[in-house]
Amino acid sequence: MKEIYLISDEFSTYPTDYGLFLLGDNSHYFIDRQYLPIANSLKSGLSASDLFGSDISIYESAVLFKKIEDLKASGIIVEHSGQRLEGVSQVRETFEGLCISESLQSSFIPVEFWREVVESSQLNGRLNVILTAKLDLSLIHLIEQSVKKPSIVIKITGKDIWVTRPFAHTERQNVEALISQISANTPFEGYLKSLGHDLYYASYKSNLDLLKENKARLVSLLNCIDLKEDIITTFCLVNTKEAKHNVNTFIRQGYDFNKESSHVELTDCFVNYKHDCGTRVQSPHSTLDTLMPLISPITGVITHLEKEELGAYSSIPVYKAAYNKPLYKNSFERPSNEAFIQGTMGKGETDIQSQVSAICETIERFSAIFKGYEIPIKSCQSKLDLYSYSYHDLAPYSEAQYRNFNTPEHSDSKRKQACRKYTDQETLWYKATSLIKKSPVYVPFTFCFSNTPFEDEKFGRWHSNGCAAGNTIEEATLQGLLELIERDAIAIWWYNKVARPAFSMDKLATTLLERCDQTLGKDFDYWLLDITNDVGVTVIAAIGREKASGKYSFGFGCHIVEEIAAQRALTELCQLIAAKEQNSCIFDRSKIDTGNYLMPHEDVLPVNKSIQFSENLKVMIEAIAKQLDTLNIEVLLLNYTRPDIPINTVKLFAPGLCHMWPQLGNPRLYQTPVKLGWLEQPLTEQTINQQGLYI
Description:
Elements: E1 3-7, E2 12-15, E3 19-24, E4 27-32, H1 36-44, E5 46-47, H2 58-73, E6 77-81, E7 98-100, H3 111-120, E8 128-132, H4 138-145, E9 151-155, E10 160-163, H5 172-184, H6 187-194, H7 208-213, H8 215-223, E11 231-236, E12 242-246, H9 257-262, H10 284-291, E13 305-307, E14 319-324, E15 341-346, H11 351-366, E16 377-379, H12 391-394, H13 399-405, E17 427-434, E18 440-444, H14 445-448, E19 467-470, H15 473-496, H16 510-520, E20 524-530, E21 538-546, E22 552-559, H17 562-579, H18 617-630, E23 636-639, E24 648-653, H19 667-675
Parallel strand pairs: 7-8, 8-9
Antiparallel strand pairs: 1-5, 1-6, 2-3, 3-4, 9-10, 10-11, 11-12, 13-14, 14-15, 16-17, 17-18, 17-23, 19-24, 20-21, 21-22, 23-24
Helix pairs in contact: 10-11, 15-18, 15-19, 16-17
């Protein structure tokens, strides 16, 4: 009997215009439409000989065979002798104290097995047990029905068994919150629903043997469930490992998101921690303790947090994390196996610093995701009843850039920044707060929140510039402002290729320099440039040149305290160099225009730093806002702190500041070097540095 390839029965399949989606238990896979014919054949059975038909070239056959082998290695497809075996449903008899959710309607349900497990455990008679294939909203009705006994939910499909803590019939809010976060961690399913698919769950008949082998362990698992601890316990039938996943119970009582986001009043907030490259209200250790419960691929905002293995570059700790993000039917980004998850990295001199940095970067991006309870208004800009900034004001592209974005043959049309020029169409708007005028200002809704389902994204989309997380609104606001200032200084230096002075490393701690030299000294020459401009807050560029190849790498830092700015730049350089072997980047270092602007110039004087350090974060924020106001740049603050996240998140807008991504319609990009005496004449869009700084 010939060997045939089949999609594993652990996956249900969903054909779309883009390709075939495979949905499994806690996993998913996408097969691009170029492989759709072979994917459709895999559903019923495909032999190796089918790949080498007369109508397929040898090259195409080899490519398809390689794809098959990759899918086989990933467990997506399996090899069988003969015909595919169909799952057989068991009689769905229920028992007292045992309920079956709607999600199990089409699945193989070993009800008798689970009755025996429950009756053998200490939970028997004490709790109502609900069996399910998915923790979804259908569970709420079953939990509310059980008035006399709390309900415990057991997900019985797949290789991982889940067990919740007991829920009383009055805990609707807690159940909804848990289901909402689990749903956020399954964006693949949400995307399929947006396409109109009704989801079903594959038959797991093959799991019955594994269940029987682990029956005693499952009984023990139920016996050990902590009835008060807010966790989900998982048990893997394959390796018999248990894991506990924290359920986030944090909530800001009485929190009105739409009011808090648009009406922000800063308060006095004092620096209590000044070590390790920062000005914070509490130590990184304390912040980490608060945020660690948010890490879980099932119940967490953050899927994981792990240290990057950097081999020889081990002196600088690098941590990476990730979060899940949704796509919609009309999303700009096309579906792929990478489109539903976003990675982040943390920087810092110590492990704790780097961990907190990675977690906070993840949260500032996750919290920016559109949730559905944000209330915008729909209007043409010309009919708004408050002052407003348009899409172009916030992302001032040139006419040439707009043309390239909308020319399918041009490479810029494929960039995530690609958009159409806004010409007063009816779109969605949201209020931010002017820090100087203390009044609301309208900005485009799709610049405030990411991953929205709205067609307005064709005029411009959210990006993370100016986003920050902090223990307080003031802490986050200062960090967001510093990021805007850093990107502005980078853009003016890079695109105008202006000569800047060195920043002396003698001002930095010996321990930091020793660590950096351990990371860089053998293979790189490196130095610091002071690229501060008329904003008056120190911005430092750390430049590294590889001795063997001559290629350059960069790190940047910004802070009111110049030593902290330099520390941040140097640490970032070390981390980016250390991580480059593990990560690819759309910025091609080999194409850098190697001019004098990359080198320090002794005959050039640094710009005076007009903003002074204060122990009060509010004082520093207001000083920066006033300085920017003298440059005719208004600072806007959006507070998008989420009610269920124990850390604050904000986005700062400063229309008129430059972005390091090329926004070539901004007059400041060309005028500032002349104003400061760095250039005699302004450059043009054709004479500036032509390499976009997409880093």
